[in-house]
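User: I've been going back and forth on whether these two constructs are worth ordering. Before I decide, could you fold them both?

Assistant: Sure. I'll take them in the order you sent them. The first construct and its C-alpha cells:
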Amino acid sequence: MLKQQLNHPQILEALAAAGHGSKILITDGNYPASTTLGENADLVHLNLCPGRLTGTEVLEAICSAVPIEGAAVMETLKEGPYAMTEDPSIWAEFRTILDAAGNKIEFEQIERFAFYDAAGEPEVALVIQTGEQRIYANLLLTIGVVLPE
C-alpha cells in the first residue's frame, strides 16, 4: 500500500521514468490531447465525465509525488468568443496548490499554438487529460530536483 496521495499506476510509472527537467501536462476537457501528444509522452485519460476529475484535483495529486520547478499556461485570447480581460480564476487555484506544496513559481504564458508545440516536445513525459470544464485550465509543469536529506 502507498502512503502518498497519488496511487494511479500508469501515472506513477511515467513519473518514475521521468527526471529533472521532464514535463507533465495537465489538460482541461477541451484540450486536443491525442492529436498534440509528443513522441515520449504517456497519455492518461482521467476525463470520466464533465467535471470529473478536475485539473486542480490532479495537480494536488501530482504535487504530492514530485517537486515542480516551472509552470506554463496557455495565454488567454484578447479578442473573440473566448477572450478574457483578466486571468482565469483556475490559475489562482493552481498557484495556491503549487504554493502549498512548496513550489513558489511564476507562470509563463504561452500563445495557444506555441503551447501545443511545447506540449508536444520530447521533454513531455506525461499528459493527463481531465474532465475540467473551465477554459484555460491547461498547465505544463516542469519537474524539479529531489534534494538529498
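The second construct, handled the same way:
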Amino acid sequence: MNAIVEISGKQFKVEKDSKLFVHRVQGKEGEKITFDNVLMLDNGSKITVGSPNVKGASVQAKILKHLKDDKVIVFKKKRRKGYRVKNGHRQALTEILIEKVNEKTTAKKTETKEVKKAEVKKPAVKKAPAKKTATATKKTAKSSKK
C-alpha cells in the first residue's frame, strides 16, 4: 500500500518499510510518531484521493536518527563592484522508517453520521422584513438630489 503524506511542509510518497530523510521532526531517536495529513492512498486496486486529506487515514513511523545534510555553499558576487559574500548551510534532517500505513475505518464513520443527524435540530424560521413601497423610495431619492 502506497500513500502520499505531507511531512514538515513537503509531500512524500511512502510505503511500508521505506526510509526517508525529512526536515527535522520533534522527538527523540527510537520514538514513534504518527502523521495524519495523508493526501492520497493507493491500495493496489483502489485509489483514494482526499479533499484535502483522506479522513481517518494515518501513517506511523519511527525516528531512526537526527543528522545534518551535506554543506551547501551560497556565493554571491556583483562584478566590478567588489561585492562578494560566501555563506554555507547545512540542513537539519531526521531519518524515519515507515512502519505502518493505516486506511480509514468505515464502521466508525457510519456511527458518527447517525449520531450527528439525530443531534441536529431545525432552526426557527424567521420572517423577512417588509419591503418598502416604490413611492417611498422615489420620495427619498428626490429629496437627496436637492
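Notes on the second construct follow. The mean pLDDT is 84. The longest helix spans residues 106-119.
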